[in-house]
Amino acid sequence: MSSLLSNPTLFTLFLGHKLCQNQNSKNGITYNPILRSHRIPRCAVDMPYGVNAPTFPRIKVWDPYKRLGISPYASEEEIWSARNFLLEQYAGHERSEESIEAAFEKLLMVSFQHRKKEKINLKSRLKKKVEESPPWIKNLLNFVELPPVEVIFRRLFLFAVMGGWSIMNSSESGPAFQVAVSLAACIYFLNEKTKSLARAFIIGLGALATGWICGSIFVPMIPTVLIHPTWTLELLTSLVAYVFLFLACTFLK
């Protein structure tokens, strides 16, 4: 009792306990002190989340690169490293973690869109490779263009039909008519691009002559076992010429 009187806090708790016990005993209620406990934080776990956690100083910085403290040319690995480091430093502070994650997600989305654009845009990738190539390759590629895919497939279909027609009529007559039609088509397509009939005529004849010479040189090197008995040297040479005519009217400027 003397210790209770010397400590006011303990005495107050003891007095309240006795009064409640007497009151409940009058009402027929048995008091169980285990069911009532004074709500005082006992350890750090009982404290609110993030009370003692440090605050991220760049929460209100708009630029996600500056918020994470990295260069605008940082790689994905550097972005991940900065994000993990900052989350570890400011763990426990909810607003800081949200700010770091928001900047990280924004940069990740920008990186994803950039990679997707690079994969889809084939022309930009080819242009970049051309810019990095030697000067003589640049001069050579100035005469080459990449048309739309639909144009490539339409012209490929046309010359494939010419080749199939020549093979079907190989036993009856030579492919002279089909070669003439293919040359006319090549000149027509080139004239559409160059707006010069003379230039188109020269390129078309040059492609036919180059294809015919290459066919005359390389076709005899093919083993006869691989060649159909009815296919003549003229037919196989015309097939090579169709390839050169297709390349000329499709990819040359």
From TrEMBL:
Coiled coil regions in record: none
Q: Which residues cross the membrane?
A: 174-190, 197-219, 231-252
User: For this UniProt entry, what's an example GO CC term?
Assistant: chloroplast membrane
Pfam families assigned:
CPP1-like
The lineage's top-level taxon is: Eukaryota
Keywords (A to Z) from UniProt: Membrane, Transmembrane, Transmembrane helix
Supply the PANTHER family for this chain.
PROTEIN CHAPERONE-LIKE PROTEIN OF POR1, CHLOROPLASTIC, PTHR33372
According to UniProt, the name of this protein is: Protein CHAPERONE-LIKE PROTEIN OF POR1, chloroplastic-like isoform X1
Species for this entry: Durio zibethinus (Durian)
Gene behind the chain: LOC111313310
